[in-house]
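Researcher: Structure for this, please.
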Amino acid sequence: MHNVLMNFAEKGMIASAMKFIKDFCKTFVLHAVAAHFNNGLLPSALLFLFLAIFRSDPFFERTVLHLIILAICMVPVSFFSGVRDWRTKFSGGRAPIFYRKMWLTGLLFLLCGSALLIRITHPAVLFQKGVFTWLYVGCIGSTLPVVILLGHYGGKLAFRWKQMNG
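Model: Predicted structure, token format:
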């Protein structure tokens, strides 16, 4: 009797897992995942940057480097998946909001790339106190309003798409 119950439970679990996987594949939106990934990474990088400055702790600053590297890897994924979604969901319609998002994504890549370049060429940039320190902090700090605006415009588009599709 125990084996019968275990078999039933396993089959039920497998069926549930298969249903979840099918539903996941049907509803997965790569752009939303990639965009929200950066929307979480970059404010976290800024938080760790402040911790590194106020605690004079190089380990916090090293975390900033790792978060920036991850963000740089995700920006192109977010950009190209966003362009694909724009072409499929909005038929590539020309509207200022899409061009703003593209411009902001380019700016985000430039800011993260500049911060990474400064950090790689000057490993102790945060603790040397000079012009590169201000540029480094400025680049990372400037990512915050950029991801906020990208999220804002993305939310407007998602709401508009929902309205169009009932």
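Researcher: Any notable elements?
Model: The first helix runs from residue 2 to 27. The helical segments are 2-27, 30-55, 58-89, 96-121, 125-128, 131-164.
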